[in-house]
Here is the input.
Amino acid sequence: MFANPEFFGLLLLLPAAAWWYRHAHPHHYATVTFSNLAAFGRESSWRGQLRGSLPILRGLAFAAIVVALARPQSFLKNENIHAEGIDIMLTLDLSSSMLAEDFAPNRLEAAKKVASDFVAKRPYDRIGLVVFAGEAFTQCPLTTDHAVLREFLAKLDCGFLQDGTAIGMGLATAVNRLKESEAKSRIAILMSDGENTAGYFKPDVATALAKEKKVKVYTIGIGSQGEALSPVGRRSDGTYIMGLVPVSIDEALLQNIATTTGGNYYRAKNMTELARIYTEIDRLEKSKIDVSTLRRRSENFHPWLWAALTLLVLELLLRYSIFRTIP
Here is the structure.
């Protein structure tokens, strides 16, 4: 950028100077008329031809001086970012009922997409992933490598865990991953579409553990109302048999977990509501980020002055040596 760009208006003098040199300048010299130039050999030598380029050097020198007057500058910008992030464990139900098709294409794919978008919005937080069905498993420990985490999310599918809904096991596993965290804020986002039907760790015990370890839990019940097309069995080739099944979410349990630990309970009946819930959680749990910026300005007009001086000296040397004329 330039500190005084208004000086570029001086460049308009160059076309005027070129016109004057071409049309008015020749009249300043006396002329001698000859009837025949044969005695002089060629009409012009290479010196005569090149001498006409001397004004170009002077014009370039003038242009370089104008650029120097405009004061080109560069800015060096250093940013120091201090982020006080939040440790978050996403805790996702992988029971077969998550394949219900009341969300497009099903609850699981909708949950994966919204969770992935949530992760992308929080670059300074450590986020991990716990999945549960009839048992619980840490799919990804707390990490700031969100590309890896989102890859794990994308590959999630029902069927590799024993079927069932062990909400207590899922919550206990998430708390166990967060209990050693030194972050000032530790939260778990637990999503389920059913009732606790499995696991040796009861939900009330897991809730008490979360409260003791100061882990705030946001719970989400995912599923429409009434009936939904859900898995009712499995064929010998592993594919699911679908049928209409009543939507049954233990909202009282999820509400109790959230209230006891200082979080909130949400009910997502469609994709729009699910996205809104994650947006709300993102708003409530903001990371503290301090950014200090150092700006240093550097003047860059010196090379242009040197270029102008070099061109002027070169023009003078050529004019009064190789291209010198006889008065």
